[in-house]
Write a structure and sequence with these properties.
It is found in: Cytoplasm. By secondary structure, the chain is of the alpha+beta class. The protein has a single domain (2-129), classed as Ribosomal Protein L22, Chain A (Alpha-Beta Complex). Helix content is 46%, strand content 30%. The protein has 5 helices and 5 strands. It has helices at 12-22, 25-30, 33-45, 47-67, 97-105; strands spanning 2-11, 81-85, 91-95, 108-116, 120-129. The chain has a 3-stranded antiparallel beta sheet with strand order 1-5-4. The chain starts with a strand and ends with a strand. The relative contact order is 0.23.
Length: 131
């Protein structure tokens, strides 16, 4: 049964401008441990890929926070929610700490889809109850 649905669209130009103003501090605030490694690697290789990666993760976390009905308040934090790639390439949500415990206690599971184009990144999340 569906617990919640969330969607978000992000203007990649705004992310690029924020990075230009604040450097990687913004990325370090938003991205979890695995994500920050991928971001730094992509940013160093092709800057546009790094910026798009950050935008898709930002959008997915916003969509997830809407789907679980908490917004960005405890136990939902930017860094406690990571969007990682399965070996198949499919994006998946990995949770940490109090958010992971809260999510597990509620018996939930999440599905995420992300996409980006030159100027926009978007994400869609469906959270369902198990069983």
């Amino acid at each position: 049964m569906i617990y919640g649905i969330g969607t978000d669209i992000c203007d990649i130009r705004r992310i690029r401008e924020t990075l230009a103003r604040r450097g990687t501090r913004f990325a370090e605030k938003v991205l979890g441990p695995h994500e920050i490694e991928v971001f730094r690697e992509r940013l160093a290789t092709v800057e546009a890929r790094g910026v798009a990666y950050l935008a898709t993760r930002f959008s997915a976390k916003e969509a997830f926070s809407k789907a679980i009905g908490l917004g960005l308040r405890m136990p939902m934090t930017w860094r406690a929610c990571e969007i990682v790639k399965a070996p198949s390439g499919k994006p998946e949500i990995r949770l940490h700490g109090e958010l992971a415990a809260w999510f597990e206690a509620k018996g939930l599971r999440a599905h995420v889809s992300v996409t980006d184009e030159t100027e926009y990144a978007a994400a869609f999340v469906v959270v369902e109850t198990r069983g």
